């Protein structure tokens, strides 16, 4: 039985959407204290909209957060994920992603 005949997308479409979701998760959860706001957000070009980029720039460069990230020399790297297609509509697909990151912080 082909369940995709019931759905508004193909198996390839689902796989492509899942790949984008994972790529965004990796880029969003991988950063280093040496990285500029622009470089951090640029890693997600093609995956996010302009308004989302603006929000991410604002949150990444929040003074207290940025200062702590630099003073502790924080480095984060996405190392695992679990995802589940949670809902879909005629022209949308929603994934819920659970992320796990490894990180290090060094105080001077």
Short description:
This protein is α+β, with helices and mostly antiparallel strands and 108 residues long. Helices cover 41% and strands 26% of the residues. The chain has four helices and three strands.
- Class computed from helices, strands and strand pairing: alpha+beta
Radius of gyration: 17 Å
Q: Which sequence of SSEs, written as H and E, runs from N to C?
A: HEHHHEE
Range of strand content: 25-35%
Number of domains: 1
Taking the sheet with the most strands, its summary is:
3 strands, antiparallel
Discrete helix count: 4
* Helix share bin: 40-55%
Total count of strands? 3
Structure description:
The protein is an alpha+beta fold and 108 residues long. The radius of gyration is 17 Å and the shape is elongated. Strand 2 and strand 3 form a beta hairpin. The chain has a three-stranded antiparallel β-sheet, covered by helices on one side. The mean pLDDT is 84. The protein has one domain. It contains four helices and three strands; from the N terminus they run αβαααββ.
Topology diagram in text:
Blueprint (H helix, E strand, L loop, with lengths): L10 H18 L2 E2 L4 H6 L7 H11 L2 H9 L3 E14 L4 E12 L4
Antiparallel strand pairs: 1-2, 2-3
């Amino acid at each position: 039985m082909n369940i995709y005949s019931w759905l508004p997308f193909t198996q390839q479409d689902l796989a492509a959407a899942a790949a984008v979701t994972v790529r965004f998760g990796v880029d969003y959860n991988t950063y280093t204290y040496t990285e500029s706001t622009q470089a951090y957000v640029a890693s997600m070009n093609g995956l996010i909209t302009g308004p989302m980029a603006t929000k991410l720039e604002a949150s990444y460069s929040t003074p207290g957060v940025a200062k702590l990230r630099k003073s502790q020399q924080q480095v984060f790297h996405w190392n695992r994920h679990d995802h589940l297609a949670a809902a879909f509509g005629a022209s949308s697909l929603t994934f819920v992603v659970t992320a796990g990151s490894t990180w290090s912080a060094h105080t001077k």
